[in-house]
Amino acid sequence: MTEQIVDLIEANMPASSDVVSVAKGAGGEAGRVVAAETATDVATHLTDEALAAKIDKHGVGQVTLDNLSNEVKTAMAGGTTLIWDETTNDLNMEQAMRPRYGFIPCDALMLLSPDDPHASGVYVNGLSGRVNTAPDASYRIYVVPVQGHDTLYINREANTSLQIAFTSRYNDPTTLANGTNLIGYISGWRANETTKPAAGMPYEVPIPDGSRYAVCSSNDMTHLYVSVRTGISGVDRVWHDPRIAELDAAKLDARPTRNIFDPSNLRYRVDGYYVSADDGTFVAREGYMCVAIPVDPGVHLSFSPGFERVCFYRDWVGELTGLGVRHGTQLSVFVAGTVQGGLQDYPVPDGAHMMIVSIKTANITRAQIEVGSASTPYVSGRPGISVTDIHDLDRTLTVGPGRMYSTISAAVAAASDSDEILVYPGIYNESVHAWGKRLRIRGTSKRDCILRHSAMHYADPPLEMSRGELSNLTVIGDDSGTPTDSSRAYCMHVEDDAAAGGSLFVHDVVFENAVHACVGIGLRNHCTLEFRGCEFHATGAANTAVYAHDHETSTHGEDDQHLAIIDCSLETAGGTVIKLQSQEISGNHATLCAQRNIIVNTANPSNLVTMSKWDGRDEGQDGLLGSYAWTLEPTSQMNTADILNAV
Predict the structure, then answer these.
(1) What is the pLDDT of residues 296-332, one digit of tens each?
(2) Which of 42, 120, 167, 357 would you label with 256, given CA atoms 20 to 30 Å apart?
(3) pTM above 0.90?
(4) How many Å apart are CA 448 and CA 463, to the nearest integer?
């Protein structure tokens, strides 16, 4: 971090000296300590004593919109336009800063880095999908994933040698040579000087239907960026800087000073829905929007008129974008809700860390939520900004050949809560232990990103995970190796005390196990686990697709445990497809929501869902609807197994 701050200052960006009060009030003791240490480190790296004198030890640590001096605003905008005021947005800020400081827009990460695997001395013809010998060795070919997106953004500085061919199959760039025809070629594109976009704007390249990869070639990759999103969703990552990694444990997260309602940030907003104040689920409704806002228990909030639903949850999901919100979705454990608009002095309930508000889009113009006992005159939503926010410490760690990490386990070990781990195509033969962390593990291709490991040892499964998000890959437990005992492993084991009060969202994942259940689940109190759009293939003769039990605890009355299986296909070769067990703890209660699932047992069609006590007695399907700890949610419907359809 020091290095980046020094660069800004030596580029003649003076530091504000009027931010001490905000650093003290918002940064907290940890923020003040880190700010002071960072400032001291910066000052010692500056060669110009006059520049070093401009550093305010507290001001470096915390900056908000209200207290930035005009001098700083003008300098950061290149001496022309104020970056932050009530009318500008993140994109304006990025475009103003990029020419001066080299910040570039990117998706969760840049899709292309010069260090990625590539072919040299050749280029791809975008019009034919054929690889040709290049005029010199400076030409390179890279392959990047684009599946699920409709536009590729290329920076304006890309020269006319840049050609892109879109394909439906993965082509290993290191094997591409003269005469190679790309597998699955669809169509192509080439940069053209006559159609260069306006200054500060990128090329917008339509991604053809069916495209999974873009094969890019140019003789100037150093100045090229490729992304599937534009705007300041993040600046160029500095994950390799150990000084920033050291600050992970003491992030200087900014707190807004006034209006915390900001509907302009698309990462935390979803359109076309409101949230139910009864159960916290999303309900489709045209003309509405929902906005997620982090909160702290016990804080008092005051709302302007116009908010129709306010719901509180126990966990913070990070962002709404890309989570596939649908009717009935609940992102985390619901705590409480209200339908009152214009609330004043409303306390955030105990245990709540996320708030989602619903409002008609027509009413957002002067909507306001403030920390305090009463509403005050309107100001636009203006979240605070900290130096750690600028350097984007909620990182994306990449896994694959030539990426940041060669194994998923190494990325998990290096990750902190809320980090994303992006897995590139390959077969990863390893056991990944992610209990105790809240991470987003995402594959770039569900069929091509494969986590595989022996399932012969119960304590060493392919994956252990209990909080966060898992998506878009395949997890396989095979029968390799020699067993040392009679216990076998699940593909994914979800059982960790750290899951209490949290949530795990699993979508678009394929599970396959040859020797045991695909997924083994031990719920915890105040816990929600949702599978959506997944495939479960239990290929052994007696294996189960999904096995779940309520919390093993001596504490009675843990009645907030939830499992949802939605839009999934579950298949076994004789074993029970879904098996639920009760620990028989008085007062404990777990719920199952099952919607639109295909349930198949190829060897025993009647053995689909069973419910049993822990000791295995009285096993039978009649226990599902309330005889034991499990209850079927009334919204369960449209499943091929009638027992999962609520009456």
Answers:
(1) 888 889 998 889 999 998 876 666 766 778 888 887 7
(2) 42
(3) no
(4) 17
